[in-house]
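stage 2 :: seqdesign
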């Protein structure tokens, strides 16, 4: 018998090796060749236009329209020299993906002649017909206009013959319909607040930038096998599948040798990434079979995020060339590790100093401690905000598994820093009596080793030597979302710290003393989120509950924080997002959650009823025929003993079929009721509480059938095939 699974397996085994393009041996020779970077600008722009762009990038100076025409013209000439025929504004709508609408450079003149043209207006602003992008009620259809506007701080690039210009996306009424605008606003406040704090220590610091180095985890699966799994193709994850006898138990995949076909795929996407200026650096096998990771050198946050969005696109595109489908879903397979996207984050001055580098001298230590402790305080205060900004249906399946940080937001800082905080806290406690000299002993806290070797792989927010690693972010997420949250809450906290310090100084306290006094209180207040142990353990869940930390397991409940008064205030006060914009995002995300669970539920019903049960019945019929045959040829006593296995299996199959049918039916009825709710929030909650629980139950019976039914008949590629076929 031939079924789609065997055809797919055959195709995957016969796949021929792809001829790689010729890749020059030195990446430095082609790094950024498809981006309109400084070198390209100095070749193609007038000095005036070049200066205008640099000032926009480095000092946030607005580009005048007069210069925009010159820049557009230079950009066009450069793009055409690289083979581009079209241009496109490239933006991040609230779908989470990126969007493009291509226009050709070609323009017809009155005399019928054609020329390539690209004006400053076309560069700076466009009005995409974007009424189908999610807007959460911000745009009524009568004001369905949306504008994209050029973000000169992120380099334009050429993708598939199109000049792509990174842009923000706003409504006619000026509200953000994307992730980039609030991100830029959050970074702007953070940079301003952090700079002011730095100037307490060194007045020559002019600018601080936040930095991000993401680590992208992903699975690859042969495209033929992927296509034979409707659940993977339609939802990005397997909804059924019995565990493979061997998967990750031996941990033999992690950092193992990378298979040749995979290496070819990696070499090609890295080549394309480097041409686009993405500084990819690290690649390795991850823990689960078929799972890999790619990480670049860190960059300024906004640019790093555009690069991550672009890299996700490249992974999928280049994967196809090699017969692979790249899975960016947080949990493509049950019971083995899911995928995350660690966000390594820090801040850096215009002098190149990393503000989270502990430094060697006491003075540096104090500045370091100010940033460290304020970050911890911000996380303590707004843990639920961070949780809300990493929430998604996919990430729910990963957080709290035994391979990812739990939904409890805590921070890890390592033993050396814990000691430093202990010491700082105890010393300033004595200074509570206001002995002016006391605080000046504090700089004698032990030298904090920059090569702090403590590691904690289980913490959702871990200090790793000279940066924080936000590990709870999901692999498919646009990192702008968690970065908007983190940068805003830290900026807000730095502002509070600065204001309080200035107030104490105005009351004649020495600035250092004031800072120590405030830090001392912050340490006490932040203690409850500090956790150095194993965050994956049950003990931590219990301990966290005792400490009163939230453990919000699912997206509908996590998202609720978005619209809480505290959370709205922190974004409004810092001019990052308005209440209306937040409310819109809340609705879009709830709606997205409902749709995702609804689609999964439909796919489960379809697969179970139309793919699995018919095969189960067919196999059962074979067994029944066999039993009838045995009865004909055997005497009744021998028949009784010899047919027992078959009759038991026939009964088991029937049990599973009945269970599946019943549950699918109930699930569909539940869905029908919930779909009628007018209230979106209740719809999302009930999809989580009343529909989602059927998934596991139905899966249980389908997976049992997988073990009972003849392997030759099973229609869906099995876990061992998906995970190990290369
Ligand atoms: P790990 O052991 O976690 O893999 P690495 O030193 O290899 O640590 O760094 C992981 C990621 O952290 C990389 O993407 C790297 O670019 C990033 N990173 C390193 N320093 C910084 C920093 N100062 N700011 C932001 N990201 C950083
Ligand atoms: Mg890491």
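stage 2 :: out
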């Amino acid at each position: 018998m031939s079924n789609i699974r065997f055809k797919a397996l055959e195709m995957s085994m016969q796949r021929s090796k792809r001829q790689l393009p010729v890749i020059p041996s030195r990446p430095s020779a082609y790094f950024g060749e498809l981006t309109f970077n400084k070198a390209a600008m100095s070749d193609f722009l007038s000095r005036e236009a070049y200066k205008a762009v640099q000032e926009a990038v480095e000092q946030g100076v607005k580009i005048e329209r007069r210069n925009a025409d010159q820049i557009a013209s230079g950009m066009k000439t450069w793009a055409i020299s690289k083979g581009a025929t079209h241009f496109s504004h490239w933006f991040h709508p609230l779908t989470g993906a990126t969007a493009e609408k291509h226009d050709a450079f070609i323009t017809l003149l009155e005399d019928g002649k054609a020329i390539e043209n690209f004006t400053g207006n076309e560069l700076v602003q466009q009005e995409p017909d974007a009424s189908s992008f999610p807007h959460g009620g911000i745009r009524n259809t009568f004001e369905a206009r949306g504008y994209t506007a050029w973000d000169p701080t992120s380099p334009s690039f050429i993708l598939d013959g199109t000049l792509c210009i990174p842009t923000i996306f706003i409504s006619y009424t000026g509200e953000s319909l994307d992730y980039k605008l609030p991100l830029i606003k959050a970074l702007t406040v953070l940079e301003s607040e952090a700079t002011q704090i730095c100037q307490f220590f060194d007045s020559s610091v002019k600018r601080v930038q936040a930095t991000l180095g993401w680590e992208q985890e992903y699975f690859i699966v042969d495209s033929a096998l992927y296509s034979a799994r409707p659940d993977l193709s339609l939802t990005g994850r397997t909804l059924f599948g019995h565990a493979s006898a061997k998967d990750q138990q031996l941990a033999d995949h992690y950092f193992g040798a990378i298979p040749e076909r995979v290496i070819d795929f990696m070499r090609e996407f890295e080549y394309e990434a480097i041409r686009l200026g993405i500084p990819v650096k690290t690649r390795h096998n991850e823990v689960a079979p078929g799972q890999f990771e790619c990480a670049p050198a860190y960059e300024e946050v906004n640019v790093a995020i555009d690069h991550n969005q672009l890299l996700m696109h490249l992974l999928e595109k280049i994967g196809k060339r090699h017969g692979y489908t790249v899975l960016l879903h947080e949990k493509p397979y049950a019971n083995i590790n899911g995928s995350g996207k660690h966000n390594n984050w820090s801040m850096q001055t215009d002098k190149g100093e990393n503000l989270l580098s502990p430094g060697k001298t006491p003075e540096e230590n104090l500045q370091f401690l100010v940033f460290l402790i304020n970050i911890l305080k911000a996380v303590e205060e707004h843990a639920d905000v961070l949780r809300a900004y990493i929430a998604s249906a996919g990430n729910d399946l990963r957080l709290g598994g035994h391979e990812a940080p739990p939904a409890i937001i805590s921070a890890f800082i390592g033993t050396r820093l814990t000691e430093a905080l202990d010491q700082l806290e105890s010393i300033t406690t004595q200074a509570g009596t206001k002995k002016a000299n006391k605080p000046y002993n504090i700089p004698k806290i032990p030298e904090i080793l920059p090569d702090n070797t403590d590691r904690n792989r289980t913490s959702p927010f871990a200090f790793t030597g000279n940066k924080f690693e936000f590990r709870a972010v999901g692999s498919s997420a646009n990192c702008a979302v968690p970065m908007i949250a983190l940068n805003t809450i830290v900026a807000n906290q730095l502002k509070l710290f600065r204001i309080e310090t200035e107030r104490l100084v105005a009351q004649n306290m020495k600035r250092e003393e004031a800072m120590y006094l405030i830090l001392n209180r912050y340490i006490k207040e932040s203690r409850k989120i500090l956790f150095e142990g194993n965050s994956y353990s049950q003990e931590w869940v219990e301990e966290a509950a005792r400490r009163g930390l939230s453990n919000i397991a699912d997206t509908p409940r996590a998202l609720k924080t978005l619209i809480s008064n505290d959370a709205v205030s922190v974004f409004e006060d810092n001019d990052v997002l308005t209440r209306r914009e937040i409310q819109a995002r809340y609705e879009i995300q709830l709606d997205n959650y409902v749709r995702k669970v609804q689609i999964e539920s439909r796919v489960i019903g379809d697969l179970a009823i139309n793919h699995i049960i018919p095969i189960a019945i067919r196999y059962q019929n074979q067994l029944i025929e066999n039993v009838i045959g045995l009865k004909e040829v055997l005497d009744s006593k021998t028949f009784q003993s010899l047919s027992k296995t078959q009759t038991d299996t026939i009964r088991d199959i029937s049990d599973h079929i009945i269970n599946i049918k019943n549950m699918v039916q109930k699930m569909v009825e539940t869905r029908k009721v919930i779909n009628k709710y007018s209230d979106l929030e209740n719809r999302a909650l009930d999809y989580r509480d009343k529909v989602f629980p059927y998934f596991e139950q139905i899966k249980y019976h389908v997976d049992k059938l997988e073990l009972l039914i003849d392997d030759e008949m099973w229609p869906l590629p099995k876990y061992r095939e998906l995970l190990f076929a290369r």
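stage 3 :: structure notes
- The pocket of magnesium ion (ligand 2) is lined by residues 215, 342, 469 (CB under 6 Å).
- The chain has three domains: 31-178, 188-566, 593-724.
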